[in-house]
Amino acid sequence: MHSDSMENYNLDNHNKDYIEIMDKFYGMISKSIAIKIMKGELLIQQDNKLDNQKDNANSNKINKIALDDTTDVKSIIEFINTKRSKILSGFDNKENMQNEESYIVNVEDEVYRIFNAAPTKNSKIIRRTIVLGHEGSSINLIVHNKLSDFVDVNSIERGDTILVKGAKLDIKQSMLFDQKNTLILKLLPSKQKIYNITELNENMRNIDVIGRVTEISPIKYVNGLGNDQIAVANCIISLNKESINVSLWGSSALATAKMNLNNYIKIEFCNVRKRADKLEIIANDYSRVLINNTIIQKVKKMER
Hints:
By secondary structure, this protein is of the alpha+beta class. The chain contains 8 helices and 16 strands.
C-alpha cells in the first residue's frame, strides 16, 4: 500500500482499516495519520507525534510496541536495549536518541511490587511506583494523583496481571510514566500467598499479611540519617483471634493517616522479627500498606 498517494487513497476499497488504528490510539491521532500508519508511511507514536520509518531492520520491533494491542515487559526491555545498542555501535547518534526517547505503549504483565504513594516536593502531586514484570526482568511504572489513588481503591495487588493502556515509555530513563489518558485494568487476580498471623515465623522476609486493625498509634517523627526525619507509627492487626503488632516506618507509617479502627488492611513486602520475645511485623518504604475493605473477602476465606 506504499504506492498510493493520499489524494487517491480510497478508504471504501480498503474497508476503512484505519478505524482499527484510530481505536488503538484513541484521542491521540487524526484520521490522516491513521491512514499513513496503515500504509506503512509512519510507524510509531512518540510524544503525540509520529516518526517516519527509518530502517526496515528494526521496524518489526517498533511495530510490535506501537501497533499491537499489548506488549509485555520483556519485549519493552529488549526494545530499550536495541535502541541503546544502536547508539553504542555508532549506528545511531545521541541526537536521534533524544528525538526518540519516548513512545506510547500498552503493557500487559504481572505486578511485581507496588510502593506506597508519597508526596513529591510539590506537595500537591502524589507519586507512586509500580514495578511490572518479574525479578530480574522488570520496569518501573510511575503514576500520579488520581491514578495512584485508583490503584488502592480498586485493590490492585502484588501478583495481579494488569493492562496499562497509553503509558509513556521513556527510553533514556528506562521507565514508564502515566499520562492524562492512561488507564489500568486488572485482568487476573494474584496467586501470591497471603500469610495468616498464626503462620508467621521469625526472620520471614518480603511476605504479604492481612488483618483487621484493632489499635493505631499517632504518627511520630524520629531523626534519621543527616537532617532527615522519619515517620514512625504502630498498629495492631488481628485475624482468627490472633493479634500481632505492626511497626511502620517511612511511607508505611504515613499510610496510617488514612487508617481507621476495624479497617481490613494488607501489608505487602513486609518482614517479621522477634522483639521482647514476641513476633512483630515490620513495614517500611519498601513495603506497601493497602487499606481497602474488599480485603475482607480474603479474610473470610482464611477464617474458614
